[in-house]
Write a structure and sequence with these properties.
about 550 residues; 4-stranded parallel sheet; about 5% strand
């Protein structure tokens, strides 16, 4: 049996409040699924903590029962749940599953998810240039070549792209020695995808680029030789053919008889080439070359580069609303001269260049003054597909972005020596505010806050009052007609607080949204406080709530 729960603590936790953990402990899976779907306020950070008095978390209880469907459901809804999380007794999820004789299917899926999490951590370490941590995880994780040869959902770059960004030959050679079948031509997960060679060339890492190109050539030659010996037809071009569904805009087109959409001349010479977008808007080779050069000019055209993410889109996009994909790197490389292609790759790097971001972040820290291009560079580095950001900001001065990666316990590497006389500091670099639990760090709002707390973003019109709501004069407190949410450990039972609020004319809900007027915070209030900050919701203490009731 799983360890028994200790006596109830006054400090409740969102996972306990939801009933999800109890349902998993009891093996009541229909109830588990219902509760998991109905409690939209729960976040992956909630699942990645052990509630007070608990020895097991939700993922441990699922492993104890070996319920594959429950684990798949949990990870589908909250993909960043920590599948390497330890129990209070320091057992991993994998150890709990093995100890309780989980099925082979459960173990296979769990081990695949652990490998995926290891990949996410490897990408974060390589992104940050934390090579000692990268090596340590790579050597201990048992991660497969198949996993390394993927770009996980939610990421744009994989491990090989991050290594190529830094131009680290030693790490590349070490990784390939462990994984000889590493895909050195893996493309990024984005429109107009980039190869590792594209990235290193755009960064100007000539020695690395030459080294990587030699490795790719040697590997392709070996594959061609092996293919030739096993088949009289040979591999050749067919062995690296692009799948039909992704072939659009990756090869030049015959230009004869086509009208260019820039110079409006019709090509009449046989053998001429050009490019065409998905909607067949044609550009001749000369015009396309000049167009790429203009669109990749980081000195005179930085705003447009940021707007397009460094990609080259159809020239008819603005004039006629063409909705074609961006031109593929391979196509651009085949049509334009080498120096123009290199200029294009530099522009792609300009969008998320970490050197530029580091300089811009230093400006934020020192003065809060940033140009619009610098702001967009930083936003593009952290922006996710849903428009939010994969980083955090200070809970006190709102400085951001602060990148904590996938780390859930910020004390783990705090103060760790990085070499060259420096050490890891997970505190706010501006005011030194710190809290160890990642869930207590608000997600970055995309704004660059100045000393006075205002935003340097011209697009921000937020008038959030949460920073001052805790000092709302008692005389102005009223619950009539307000929508209220309670969070954290209150001195009274939650049911009593809800009843009192309803009796005072309020509506009580469980999740913070744009319709929430007041969030009443007890101890350890967690992520709801920062959701309230995002929506501009008033934050009340329990004492203010009682004052509004006339107590």
């Amino acid at each position: 049996m799983p360890p028994k729960r200790k006596a109830a603590s006054q400090n409740t936790h969102p996972i306990d409040d939801s009933g999800v953990l109890e349902a998993a402990k009891a093996g009541k899976w229909a109830q588990f699924n219902k509760l998991l779907n109905s409690h939209a306020e729960l976040t992956f950070e909630d699942f990645n903590e052990l509630p007070p008095g608990r020895n097991y978390g939700v993922v441990h209880q699922i492993a104890f029962h070996g319920n594959l469907a429950a684990l798949q459901t949990l990870l589908t809804k909250h993909c960043r749940v920590d599948v390497k999380m330890k129990t209070k007794g320091k057992q991993t999820v994998h150890q709990v599953a093995v100890e309780n004789s989980a099925s082979a299917a459960f173990m296979t899926f769990l081990e695949e998810m652990i490998s995926q999490q290891n990949l996410q951590e490897l990408i974060s370490f390589s992104r940050d240039g934390a090579w000692s941590q990268f090596d340590s995880l790579l050597n201990s994780s048992g991660i497969t070549t198949q996993i390394l040869n993927t770009v996980p959902i939610g990421r744009i770059w994989g491990v090989i792209h991050q290594i190529s960004y830094w131009g680290n030959i030693t790490i590349l050679d070490s990784l390939e020695a462990k994984h000889p079948n590493l895909n050195l031509e893996l493309e990024t997960r984005e429109d107009a995808a980039q190869s590792p060679l594209d990235i290193s060339q755009g960064r100007g890492h000539k020695a690395y680029t030459d080294h990587l190109r030699a490795k790719i050539t040697a590997k392709n030659n070996a594959l061609t030789a092996a293919s030739s010996s096993s088949s009289s037809s040979g591999g050749g071009e067919g062995s690296t053919a692009v799948p039909a569904e992704s072939a659009a805009m990756k090869t030049p087109v015959d230009g004869e008889g086509k009208l260019c959409n820039i110079c409006y001349c019709t090509e009449d010479k046989p053998g001429t080439i050009g490019v065409a977008c998905d909607n067949d808007h044609f550009l001749c080779q000369d015009c396309f070359t000049n167009y790429v050069s203009s669109e990749s000019d980081t000195v005179n055209n930085p705003q447009n580069i940021m707007k397009n993410g460094g990609r080259i889109t159809c020239v008819c996009k603005i004039a006629s609303g063409c909705d074609s994909h961006a031109y593929a790197n391979k196509l651009i490389a085949m049509v334009v001269p080498d120096e123009v292609y290199e200029q294009y790759l530099i522009a792609r790097d300009f969008v998320v260049g970490k050197d530029a971001v580091a300089i811009a972040l230093a400006k934020v820290k020192e003065s809060g003054a940033l140009g619009s291009v610098e702001q967009e560079q930083i936003r593009n580095l952290y922006k996710k597909a849903n428009g939010t950001y994969s980083c955090y900001m200070c809970g006190k001065c709102k400085f951001g972005p602060i990148d904590h990666g996938w780390c859930s316990d910020l004390t783990y590497h705090q103060g760790e020596n990085k070499g060259a006389g420096s050490s890891i500091n997970n505190a706010c670099p501006k005011c030194n505010w710190f809290t160890k639990q990642i869930k207590n760090w608000p997600h970055w709002d995309g704004n660059f806050h100045t000393e006075g707390g205002s935003s340097s973003s011209s697009s921000s019109s937020s008038s959030s009052s949460s920073s001052s709501s805790s000092s709302t004069p008692i005389a102005n407190l009223s619950l009539m007609g307000k929508t209220v949410v309670f969070t954290g450990a209150l001195n009274m039972k939650r049911a009593v607080a809800k009843s009192l609020a309803i009796g005072a004319g309020a509506k009580v809900t469980t999740a913070v949204s744009g319709n929430t007027d007041i969030l009443v915070c007890g101890n350890n209030c967690g992520s709801k406080e920062y959701e309230a900050d995002y929506y501009g919701t008033e934050l009340w203490t329990e004492a203010q709530f009682m004052s509004a009731l006339g107590h």
